[in-house]
Amino acid sequence: MPLTASSADYGTLDATLEGLGHDLPWEMVYQARPRPALVCSACGFPMHAKTSARGARFFAHDRRSPHCPSRGESEPHRTLKRALADAARAAGHHVSVEAVAAHGGWRADVLAAGPDGHLTALEAQVSSASLDDVLQRTRRYQADGADVVWFTPFRTRWLGQVPSVLLQRPDRPDLPWRDTLETVTQFSAGPCECDPRPFWHNGVHAAWTHPAGQPISEFVDHVLHGRLVPDSRLVPYPRLHHWATPKDIQAARDHQSSRS
């Protein structure tokens, strides 16, 4: 029986093919003789294992299906999916690439399943998408109890409307995606030490720091383990594209309640 693969599935550094759902050494599918039977999980066409000039492991169609969902996929999209899949695996999650819901209602670029079975979709959005489309796709995940995080290098309208993160674009399309931008913010509060104290100060200085970036691998690890959550403050508008620790968000809420 042939194994299923995706054009974005590839072996991790320990040479196991977790993306296939089988614990197989890379050598058993790459240039192996006799050649193993691999088919695309999306279109059913035959595939084979390959390595890029930079050493990245992936699967390619023997003959491209005109109906395959990965048809026309850009190199930046493929490399970002690989970066997200790598990060989720390193975070101890089982990863499926181009995972499709049983009811067909959504297809995730990268679907990370935690040890408790909780699902998080990591969406690599490197092309334009409308606000309505992203909101609808986000609701489909949420209706199934799955989380979703959108990754994009564009300052789009929906960046502040759904759990999302702004990325630093690589210098070249074939280079890996490494860093987020304007991502994590922190809350701090302390006694006002101004002397003399302006009349509008209430005795406490409280503020959120300017959001700072993180490596994608570090960010994904924190999100999948709940160490970072979307910061949904409504001042001056929804800012879901910023992330913070649950402790900082609770401290900000407590501070706001103390002033009410």
Automatic annotation (TrEMBL):
Residues 73-151 form the Competence protein CoiA nuclease-like domain. This is Competence protein CoiA nuclease-like domain-containing protein. It comes from Streptomyces flavotricini.
